[in-house]
Amino acid sequence: MNEVRLDRWLWAARFFKTRRNATEAVEGGKVHLNGRRPKKSKAVKIGDELRIRRGLYESVVRVTGLADKRRSAKEAVLLYEESEESREAREKLRLQMRSAPVPEFKYKGRPTKKERRELDRLLDEVN
What we know:
The protein is α+β, with helices and mostly antiparallel strands and 127 residues long. The protein has a single domain (4-99), classed as Structural Genomics Hypothetical 15.5 Kd Protein In mrcA-pckA Intergenic Region, Chain A (Roll), CATH 3.10.290. It is built from five helices and six strands; from the N terminus they run βααββββαβαα. The chain has a four-stranded antiparallel beta sheet with strand order 2-4-5-6. A two-stranded antiparallel ribbon has the order 1-3. A hairpin with a 2-residue loop joins β4 (49-54) and β5 (57-63).
């Protein structure tokens, strides 16, 4: 096997849970192959560089193996090698998100009868 479809490789390397998710990511511009935006059927070869964005995280990987079938996670890790800069950037973003304040919801469910009457009174005054 000299080459594999991009969507199949992304699925086999466990970047996406389903091939459909991999296809949507490629078509949505979340995946770049060698600096270009590819089609889902573009052939991936050993040595190619992929930039994959999933949510806020972005991974830059070099293809080191080919597979068109999904196997265990231990085997999937052998299909690519992540760059050190990418790993550091993801870790830095993870730490920033962890230290960010968690938004709080100050209300507790539905308003009581008393609170509803107060709201109605305020709305009547505005109108």
